[in-house]
């Protein structure tokens, strides 16, 4: 990612205008956000409550039952072509449950940080900032000041992820 090619949004008013996003980390180094209009909830799921399914793509972790609904759980970082979660040593998963139209989906991530607000005008083109394999799953990226440093937040497109060809393969 190339933070020097992005500009910081202007100073925010005390009311924190903009749209709400759930901020999380795909892995230890890569922060990202999802629009709250797709997010249902963020949960910690014990690994024993996830049922692995045979003959599925590697990013498909398995099925879970949540409130009498069966939901696919996907390793979001691996789906996006990044390093996969270390599932062998974990006893629980951090999941973001999203719903796009009628499609519910559980997305396993490294860590959920909380809710942040972003101005739509602060979202910039991801082309040239991130690897080309990520671009189809992004609405853009935002340069955000975090304490003394700057970080690039990936603004993920929930619809593109929910309709990914990997999730439709048999």
From TrEMBL:
Per UniProt, residues of the CheW-like domain are 18-167
The family database entries (Gene3D superfamilies) matched by this protein are listed as: CheA-289, Domain 4
Q: Which GO terms describe its cellular component?
A: cytosol
Which GO BP terms sit in this record?
chemotaxis; signal transduction
Output the PROSITE patterns linked to this UniProt entry: CHEW
Q: Which domain of life is it from?
A: Bacteria
Per the record, the coiled-coil ranges are none
Q: Which InterPro entries match?
A: CheW, CheW-like_dom_sf, CheW-lke_dom
For this entry, the protein name equals Chemotaxis protein CheW
Upper taxonomic lineage: Bacteria, Bacillati, Cyanobacteriota, Cyanophyceae, Oculatellales
């Amino acid at each position: 990612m190339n933070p020097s090619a992005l500009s910081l949004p202007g100073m925010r008013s005390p009311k924190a205008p903009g749209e709400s996003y759930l901020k999380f980390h795909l892995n230890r180094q890569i922060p990202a956000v999802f629009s709250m209009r797709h997010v249902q909830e963020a949960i910690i799921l014990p690994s024993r409550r996830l049922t692995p399914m045979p003959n599925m793509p590697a990013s498909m972790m398995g099925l879970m039952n949540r409130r009498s609904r069966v939901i696919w759980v996907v390793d979001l970082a691996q789906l996006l072509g990044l390093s996969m979660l270390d599932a062998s040593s974990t006893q629980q998963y951090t999941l973001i449950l999203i719903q796009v139209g009628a499609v519910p989906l559980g997305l396993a991530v490294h860590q959920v940080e909380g809710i942040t607000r972003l101005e739509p005008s602060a979202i910039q083109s991801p082309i040239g900032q991130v690897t080309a394999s990520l671009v189809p799953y992004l609405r853009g990226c935002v340069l955000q000041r975090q304490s003394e440093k700057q970080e690039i937040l990936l603004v993920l497109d929930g619809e593109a992820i929910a309709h990914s060809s990997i999730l439709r393969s048999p």
